[in-house]
Amino acid sequence: MINYTFAREIFESYLNDYDRTDDKVRLKIIHTYGVVGQAAGIARRMRLSDEDAELAKLIALLHDLGRFEQLRRFDSFEPDTMDHAAYGVQVLFEEHRIRKFLPETTWDPIIRTAIAKHSDYCLSGVTETRTLLHARIIRDADKLDNCRVKLADATETFLGASPEEIGAQEITSAIYASIFRNQCILSADRKTLMDYWVSYIAYFFDINFRESMDIIVENDYISRIIQRIPYSNPNTAKQMNEIEHYVKNYVERFS
Questions:
Q1: pTM for the complete prediction?
Q2: Looking at residue 201, what is its pLDDT?
Q3: How is the chain classified by DSSP, letter by letter?
């Protein structure tokens, strides 16, 4: 039996090894619980079984376990400093800490795969039906709460620059073109702050479920994220207007 409440207590104990007053750590703690809420919401909208709903919440609780060590060692979210998903799998399954959260081994393969692949550029190599379901749920839930992060948290915390600094920069041509191919953006391809901002919009091309798209439309996430930044660069302002219309049409067709 999955006991999310018990697992949350263990998670809170795990966090005691980290500086909860640090802005980046605080952001990730709030994000974790935001992803739990989004996973529960997706499961509810999809009318999944109680067991799958609890499993989705547990995976969400554990999905970013590796982020906290990344922040302690490198004070960075950048993937070239640490593969936080792989480190989370190491902590849980190679160091056997998963048993602290969940005594049974029944769901280990699903949990391990979902966490390992939650931040991959694209989801591939998963064929087992239930594992694929949960790998998709955590990816959608993660992106949905990242919408909240991009709206609620200081850009200085997650991007190291003010909205004004971001909006003054250019979008590189390769990043701009990728939007109109319905493509997500590789971390290594981002060159400017605006490339990073556009990559947060490109997340929507990797949403798996109609229910997740409904949440995006209901919350008007696309326009709200795009309009958070004051685009003092005229070319950037024009391009972001085009991107907004294109991505909104894509999402509305999907949902």
A1: 0.95
A2: 97
A3: ---HHHHHHHHHHHHTTS-TTSHHHHHHHHHHHHHHHHHHHHHHHHT--HHHHHHHHHHHHHTTHHHHHHHHHHS---TTT--HHHHHHIIIIIS-THHHH-S--TTHHHHHHHHHTTTSSS--S--SHHHHHHHHHHHHHHHHHHHHHHHHS-HHHHTSS-HHHHHTSPPPHHHHHHHTTT----GGG--SHHHHHHHHHHGGGG---HHHHHHHHHTTHHHHHHTTS---SHHHHHHHHHHHHHHHHHHHHH-
